[in-house]
Amino acid sequence: MLQFSGKHSGHIFHIIFLLGFLFSIHAALPAYITSSFLSEVGSERAVGILYTIGSLLSIVTLLYAPVLLSRFGNYHTMLALSAIEAILLLGLAYFTSFAILATLFAISLPIILLLYFGFDVFIENNSPVNKIGGIRGGYLTVNNLAWLFSPMAVAIILTNGDYWKIYLISAVIMALVALLILGNLKNFKDPAYRRVRFMETFRRIKSHKNLRNIFATNTLLHFFYAWMVIYTPIYLHEHIGLPWSDIGIIFTIMLLPFVLFEFPAGKLADGKWGEKELLNIGIILIAVSTALLSFIAEANVALWALALFITRIGASIVEVMNDTYFFKQINASDADIISFFRNTRPLAYSIAPLIATVVLFVTDYRFLFLTLGAIMLSGLYFSLQLKDTK
Questions:
Q1: How crowded is residue 122: how many other Cβ atoms within 10 Å of its Cβ?
Q2: String of b and e for 357-390 (b: at least 16 CB within 10 Å)?
Q3: What b/e string do you get for 56-86 counting C-beta neighbours within 10 Å, with b at 16 or more?
Q4: In the prediction, which pLDDT does 1 show?
Q5: What pLDDT score was predicted for residue 8?
C-alpha cells in the first residue's frame, strides 16, 4: 500500500502518472467526436450552447471543491467521482434521446474537471518546489501520450457512425481508474485545506499580480482548446469534407508537440530559462499559426496536419509554462486557489462557444480561426507583466 508522507517519492508518482494516463485516455477518446455526435442528434448551434451550460455547471462545482475535500478527503472524493463518471459514460453509449444525452454530457463536464482538480492535489502535495517544472512537465507529457494515440484509435473504432463504442470503451477505462484509486491511494494524507469564501479567494487572487496574470493566460489557453475542440472536427468533417480516418491521422500528428516539447520545456523553466520568456514565445506562435488556418481551403491531409501541429507547438509551451508558474506560487493547502485556477477551463468553455456562435452569424465558418488567432494574441498583455521566477 502506498504511504504518502508529503515527500518526493518515485513510487507515488508512478501510480499517479499511470492514473493520469488512463484518465486522459478516457477523456481523449470522445473529446474530438462529441461535438459531431451531438450535432447529428441535435444541431451545431445547440452543441455550442450545451458546452456553455456544462461549463457553467463546472464553474459552480469547482468552487465547492475545497468544501468536498475538507469533508470527505481527496481519496474518497476521487473514488466516488470516478464511479459516477463511468456510469455517465455508459449512459452516453446506451441512450439515443438528445435530451438525455445532453443532460448526461452536461453532468460529465464538471465531474471531469473535479477529477483533474483531485489529481492536482495528489501531485502538489508531493512536489518539491525546485522540481515542479520537471514533475509537471512529466505529468503533462504522460497525459498527452493518451491524447496522442486516441485520435487514431477513434478512427479505427469509429465505423458507420458507431459513436456508442467510444463511450463504452471510455466507461470501462474509467472503471479501471476507480479500481486503481481504491487499491492504491487509501493512505493519502490530506493537507489542511483552506475553506474560505468565494469573494475572499477572489480578492486574494486579484491582489496578487502574478496570480492574476497567469490566470488570464490560462483562461486564454483553454479558450483556444474549447474553440478548437468544438469547431475544428465539425469544420474538417462537414465543411472541408475529410473522412474520420484522415481526421484521425491529422489529429494524431497535431498532438505530437504535447509529447515532444512539454517535458523539456518544463525542465528548461526549472534551469536556465524562466517561464515568462517561453510563455511569450508560445503565445505568439499559437496566435499566428491559428490565424493562418483560415486560409487553408483544400482537403489536404498533410497540409492540415502540419498547420495544426504548429498551433500545438505554441499550445504545449503555454500549457506547461502556465502550470509550472502557477504551482510555484502556491502549495497543496491552497485548494481554494487551485479550484479557481482549474475553473479557468470551464470559464473558457462557457465563453468560447458563445463568441463563436456570434462570429458564425456574421462571417464564414473558416474565419473562426482568424478571430481566434487575434484573441490569443491578447495573451501577451498578461504574460509580459509576469515577474519571472528566474
A1: 23
A2: eebbeeeebebbbbbbbebbbebeebbeebeebe
A3: bbbbebbeebbebbeeebbbbbbbbbbbbbb
A4: 37
A5: 43
